[in-house]
Amino acid sequence: MLRPSEREGIREAWDIHKKHTLSSSIIDKMVIRDNELAFITQEDGEIPIIENYGYGLYYHDCRYLSGFHIRLMDVPPTQVLSSDERGFISTLIVTNPEMKDCTGTVIAKETLLGIMTTTIPGCIQQSHTIRNFNTFPVTLELNFEFDADFADMFTIRGIVPPTAGKVLPARFDGKKLYLSYEGEDRLRRNTIIAFDPLPTKVEGKICTFELNITSHGLQTINLEISVEEIKPGQEPERPVKTPDERINQIIGSHTAALEYCNNIPTSNNIFNSIMARSLADLNMMRMSLNGDVFHAAGIPWYDTLFGRDSIISALQILPFDAELAKGTLLVNAKFQSNSSDDWRDQEPGKIAHELRRGELANLNLIPQTPYYGTVDATPLFLILLTEYVNWTGDIELVKLLENNVDRALEWIDVHANMEGNGFIYYAVKSPLGIYNHGWKDSPDSISRSDGTLAKQPIAVAEAQGYVYMAKKGLAPLFRRIGRKSDAARLEREAEELKERFNREFWMEDKQFFAQALDADGVCDVISSNPAQCLWTEIIDQRYAKCLVNRIFRDDMFTEWGIRTLSSKEKRYNPLGYHNGTVWPHDNAIITMGLRKYGFIKEMSLLFTGMYEAAREFDDFRLPECFGGLTRSEYGIPVKYPVACSPQAWASGAIPFMLTACLGITPDALNNRLIINRPHLPSWLDNVQFNNVKVGNTLTDLNFRRVEEETLVNVSKRSGDINVLIKY
User: What Pfam families is this protein classified in (predicted)?
Assistant: First the structure.
């Protein structure tokens, strides 16, 4: 471990370095991923060796490949196609500009065709095939240049200076190229590149192949890029040991994800493609820890366990895959806090915010080991449990997690109740902690109409709704396991919270709810935070119409979706992370809330806006967020430069919105499936939802739009279930 003076020297150098090397956009990228390994390149398949922000090959928050260039006769090829559509395989097709080969023969442009196929079965496997369409043979030099900085993700993001670890000189042993790093945490990290056939020449990190390709012939170069961590005295740890077995598992998993789409064919082929993209991306985002499967949050910045994100994305796809919710509950329960630690903003009973496993985490130079700076993951954990049981009837999981539930409730009632008034608050204690602990967790995301920032402790509106929903949902489960008095207490506390919330958060002068309460009173901006409270049903019915009318005014509704902050507020910025952008998951939650309060027209309008936004993005992939600029002015959604894409809860937004429109409510414990006022928008005439699983029953449902009405037909039923349809 370095002395403080040595660490300060690194920090000073870092302050200079980061100003000159970090670019600011990863809009155009290809992403393939498998469990804990992610490969992010430019559209041309390359990783810039300089001016590199987020591109690279990542494992355990470490960048094992920070540079990858391909040159044919020292010239970059011309890209003609790139695709990462399936998530585990990417394809790049290139051709040549006019050039001379090694013999001086002129090769006309577009007479060579290069095809690069990349798969990620726990390593990177690439095949590079060059075809010669000339009437004569060609002799070519193909160069691959590699680089590996082994930077921690928090260093790449410009948050924390690098460690004193050492990048070792590149080494070629006659068969493989080794790029290695001795970490300050005493771990050896290796990037190992194998070739078939072997390079003609290796100079440092540049590997050269001489290709002799006959007329209309071809030649293929294969690469395999592996990563490994080695702890002192231990065997190397790799993502997988058997890539051939893993690729078969990945293909099977991808096929299964697409089968979910086959269970919900609709009359709109574009919408079918959006759903397929959403579910395929969620499948790609799966990660496991000790056998528990969940969604990582987003690529590249948040490719790890995030309590809040994993829970919300699991909630979004419960009708399609309830088992993932179980894994999400189990993994979050295992990281639930048992103690207090200010460095990690940790308190007993709290569900974790973020887990990191890179060098900075190993050295305890960042608090994400895990970090607990989240006010909403704990009530969301309880909500996921109740919703999971509603779909599955798995009361045994409630019994298994009963102690976790009690500790979560105690954290809500004791530790988060900082002001003693029944609301849950947050206040950062860690010197490297996050200032805001709601889902809008950037430093400037909670404010007042005069532009000043909220002062801690802060109680954000939506978190109060989450607590209300959690307690209301847990009460019937407690009755099922014999805790009737606790059930009654939870119901009483929920109703008291609802009354208090509608009294304290309501702004009579603005006819809207406050974004938050803080140390100085009311944060009176118009924001999307209270709109999420519709989903939780904490909003008193007498205020619901005012809230809904307000969020659909021009300063909040972009025609694509609801902004995070009104365009009339001082801190509004259409490209501000939480101060004016549009977030798909935020809009999906609001959509479900509109359904619950009976605002069917507005629900359909929001669903339509997000569907039409998805149509405009590459491969129909909704990003983490996009610009809050109005559709009527710009015509297409404006990209946010460093948005994660894919992002799990963005991928879950369209499936969640569809569920809202279908009006499906499960009640597995009472063998019921309730369909309340289904509504298909004008662009969706028919939805066939097969194999809807509630408890141990399966039901096929057909939703059909007839003029302005949506009719439902139960076409198949397996098991004892009562389907109740309310028009």
Answer: GDE_N_bis (PF14742), MGH1-like_GH (PF22422)
Element (H, E) at 507: strand 506-507
Tokens standing for residue 126: 């690439």
CA angle 9, 14, 19 (to 5 degrees): 150
The CATH number that applies at residue 395 is: 1.50.10.10
Do residues 463 and 496 share a domain?
yes
- Cα separation of 645 and 654, whole Å? 15
SS3 of 102-123 = CCCCEECCCCEEEEEEEECCCC
pLDDT digits (tens, 9 = 90+) for 608-656: 999 999 999 989 999 999 999 999 999 999 999 888 889 999 999 999 9
User: Is residue 669 one of the residues assigned to a domain?
Assistant: no
Q: Which helix (H) or strand (E) holds 675?
A: strand 672-676
- The angle at the Cα of 332, spanning 328 to 337, to the nearest 5 degrees, equals 175
Angle at 109 (CA atoms; ends 105, 113), nearest 5 degrees? 100
Q: Decide which of 636, 662, 688 is a domain's last residue.
A: 662
The pTM of the full predicted model, rounded to 2 decimals, is 0.94
CB neighbours of 670 closer than 8 A, spacing ≥ 6?
none
Rounded distance, CA 371 to CA 431, Å?
12
- Report the C-alpha dihedral over residues 420, 422, 424, 430, rounded to 10 degrees: 10
The pLDDT tens digits for 385-407 are 999 999 999 999 999 999 999 99
* Cβ proximity of 207 and 173 under 8 Å: no
Q: How far apart are CA 70 and CA 89, in angstroms?
A: 19
Residue 8 is part of which domain span?
4-244
The one-letter amino acid code at 103 reads T
Contact yes or no for 384/392 (Cβ under 8 A): no
Residue 618: exposed, middle, or buried by beta-carbon count in 10 A (0-12, 13-18, 19+)?
middle
Q: Angle at CA 363, nearest 5°, toward 357 and 366?
A: 70
